[in-house]
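Issue 218. Parser rejects a valid record. Input:
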Amino acid sequence: MTDHLKTNYIIEDKITIRKIPAILFRPKEGKKLLPTIILYHGWSSNKELQRMRGFILSAVGYQVIIPDAIYHGERNPLRNYDIDDATKYFWKTILNNIEESHIIIEDAISKYGADSNKIGVIGNSMGGFTAAGAFTHNPIIKALVAFNGSCGWRNFNKRFKEFNEISITGQLEKIEGKVNKLDPQNNLNLLMDRPILLLHGDSDNVVPIESQRIFYNKIKPMYKYKDKIKFIEYPNLNHFVTTNMMEESIAWFYKYL
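Output the parser choked on:
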């Protein structure tokens, strides 16, 4: 931990969860069972680059686990992370993250003192896609925050392929089939009345906001408790996480975790 992050009230550890390298932050003087947030990084990022966000969330009382995704960090990182790599590995990485989310939750509870009634998930960009998928398919997770991601995978994927003039065949078709099956927007029955906060710049040219708008407009009418679903658009903001976004996420977890 760099000097400017060192404190006497937060512990940072490098851990391995069944071969998944991760960073764990936790308040030094915390409860026996800790509210715990799993933080997912974006495409071409890694757990180390998310340490400041982990530190901030831990500083307000949460245990935070930040895993490396496959093809990132300590897990055979790619060289370029260009369009060709994204076509081959973007969805494969997300699907693997979701498979591993069950393992991370199990070990967070059994080995790291996570309160099973207070588990949240957050992520930026690809991490926002991952967080949405993990939340959809892990009912134990109580709250979701997605920065600049998408809960409408099929809509995003369609635009991505059209924009980059990509056609897929073979194994990638099988992966796309699984993406469509697990797409949060295709599983709205698993999401109704569960706390979802979506934060997105309206000028995002990496993950355009449209697929998130479509998802939000489709699911909001299904909510009995409207305060449990919230979508904040940030005018003129590109693909960035702002201080305001972090403040909103903390307030959301305070309310629902």
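Fixed in the parser; the record now loads. The longest strand covers residues 114-124.
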